[in-house]
Amino acid sequence: MSVAIDTGLGLTVRGLTALFNTPRGMALAVADVDLDVAPGEMVGLVGESGSGKSVTLRSIMGLIQTPGHVTGKVEWGGRDLVAMPAEELRRIRGSEIAMIFQEPMTALNPVLPVGLQLEENLVAHTRLNARERRARALQLMNTVGIPAAERRLNEYPHQFSGGMRQRAMIAIALACSPKLLLADEPTTALDVTIQDQILKLLLDLRDRLAMSVVLVTHDLGVIAGTCDRMAVMYAGRIVEMGTVIDVFRQPRHPYTRGLLGSVPRAGAVRTMLSSIEGTPPSLTDLPAGCAFHPRCSFATDICRQERPPLLSLGNDRKAACFHHDRVAAAEAIL
Amino acid sequence: MQNIGSGSLPLFSFVLRRILQMIPTVVFILVVTFVLVRLLPGDPASAMLGDRAIDADVERINASLGLDKPIPVQFLYFVKNVFTGDLGTSIALKLPVTTIIMQRLPVTLMLTLMAALLALVLAVPLAFLAALRREQTADAVIRGTFQVGLSMPVFYVGILMLTVFGATLKWFPVGGYGDTFADRLYHLFLPALTLAFSFSAVLMRNLRSSIIGVINAEYVDFARAKGLRPRIIMTRHVLRNALISTVTLFGLQIGTLFGGAVITETVFAVPGAGRLMIDSIYGRDYPVLQGLTIALAVLVSLTFLATDIFQAWLDPRVAR
Amino acid sequence: MSVAVEKIGLYPRLRRLALPRTLISGTIIIGVSLLIAFFPALFAPYDPIAFDYKALLKGPTLAHPFGTDSFGRDVLSRVIHAYTIDMQIAVFATVGPFIFGTIVGAYVGYAGGLAEAIFGRVVDAVITFPFLVLVIAIVSVLGPGLGNMYVAVGIVGWVFYARLVAAEVKVQKRLDYADAGRVMGYTPMRIVFRHLLPNAITPAIVYWMTDMALAILLGSSLGYLGLGAQPPAAEWGVQIADGKNFMSTAWWISVFPGIAIVIIGLGFSLLGDGLAQLLRVRR
Predict the structure, then answer these.
(1) What span, in angstroms and rounded, lies between the C-alpha atoms of C216 and C240?
(2) Does pTM top 0.90 for this prediction?
């Protein structure tokens, strides 16, 4: 575990909050999120759709626009990304921090050749000339494993297969050797076999380039296979956090427990696949107290009245549940 | 570098296919104009020559149109004449119609070209402003103004411009056409602005909504995440994609623009093809009218071709 | 929790009940215009074609709020009486194309195949002709006047409706309820006209509103060129043409009819936008 805290180089998120002004009222998409990512570390962010994990990533990157509004601190190399002027942020985006999206078909511009979309990244952040940019582009295509790179650079996204498109997007994101990669469900749109290849590629790149990765996914299997630490989000808040091994072995939040229970596993004792009853709450109209209480089998009166704080439980472990001991002690689900 | 060939091959075959598609259109244009002339009361020759008909002329025209032959053969004669550039002789001006049209058409082309450019110059920045400030005051003012522009007839706009900027303020001439190129630009400015007025409204409305659609696209977010300069995001990623549908609309509206040119040239006394058309209607100069109809329709279909090619260039998916 | 669900469930229904503001203002403008068009004499203070040689080219006064023209005719009365002709143009020039185009479009959209291919060519060809140029050519062959204008517009205008309806019928016939109709053994006629068309016709209705505004623009343009309504009839295009040589000295002759055209155009646009919002038509 390389969790040695070195905030000078890593990413430190404090109190990150994203509010959206919608016709139905203010929606609290991300609430008071704290997150640390050490250099070279791979952190997973997991939750159902609408839990705020993607918005967290976009807020870190400064991509939230009106009607959204972001507050809090995102410290990167001693600077606060939320407060800094737009031009300074632009210089960091794409060079020091890069981002890849879920659906490369829509995230790549359909009317521009892939090579141009890669090289424009280099134009924005480096002083390389045209020939050097071309060489760098070819090198990147090789790095991410796209064959016939020379020809491929002149082609358009619709001429690529799904897996190759995702590789191309990763190549584009890596153009300026970022120190942090934010990956928003990078494998969700792909076939299972391709999914595996892309995850291996990300792990491999992390090792080779000594890059930190924040991986957003709704798929616990992806987290288990790749990440060092993980955070579970529900209704815009982090409800549990810890090393992947610890959280999987003994979840301390009923929601995490529910998520783990709904994953089929090979080699485990055959049991009923448990699922979480009910649906996630509306972000404009959160229930009082703990947002999870209407779906929680551990809930008591206090859960309906007070929101449980995210408590440190030692050993880099945190959970936001009044009954985390009961959850931990409950019958093992694996 | 040898890859550029493989990249432009689909575009080439697309252009070829597109040119072939023009053939039925041209046939249709010829059929309609042919039928229109047959609809004239009396035999075409007398109708074309009007009261001034003398037997020799009637016979000559009847022979050249093959009027003693069955209708399909007459049509072939007509097609042959058109393709050899023989559109007949003007009754009023006693000159070959082709010659007259060649004199007048460049004026109209320059007018419509200026109008199209002015419309773009007006529409693109305002569409951006309206889209970026959507549902705010600037958006409401821009859209409201253009909505009024859309509801104004061309001749009304023309008369107002003529009165205000021509007759009253005397910034521009009240009509006619200049001798030198610069002089012509000066003379055509007000007519072109008149023509551009409602055209830019149509373009603005379309471009605004496609910019709004594009600006929320994932690839624009990805471009921002790449740390590109805002100017590049706006031009290369937003504008280029938003223009794809506007280019189609631009092509479809060219016919309307030519129609507007007919009226504008009448209001501003510009000696172009539109003015010629109205004159030939009042003067019952049917050969000229027929020739002009063919010429303008062919011009429109050429514009369609050009906009389709431009669109295929903007959007590589089209050519496939 | 149950409160939240109710709120979300109720909200869209409330929204649907509230009529779009554009629809309300458009309906008011067009409603008032129709009222004036049917009963112009109730509103007009003078006879629109009566000459008054004692009051030539008089500016706006209390007696003549919009002034008088070069024959001493009251401009306000002429603008009011022109509603009759111009609203008539809006309806007559579009209702035929609307009906015919809808029927053809329904057939083409349902039949597909050869009918669709032929129709596609017709559309290509028709949009190639500059509309105004073609109408001018036809009117000049048939002779000036509103009747011939309707013919000329009708020859071309139906295509736009047919195209909209055909596209929509094509979408609708793939939906389940059309299959249900086929399974029940309904005739194609019944499926198309009783079941598909009522759903497929909304874009055509929305376009109809825009088209009526365009028809008034076209009608007044022809009137201006002397190819539409014939003087001394009161029609806005004719009036603007009457006043064009007096713009510097008697601007009111041309300016007021123009404002009437703009207001009607805005009215139809608002009505169209409002209907599109109400019927959820993408424009």
Answers:
(1) 14
(2) no
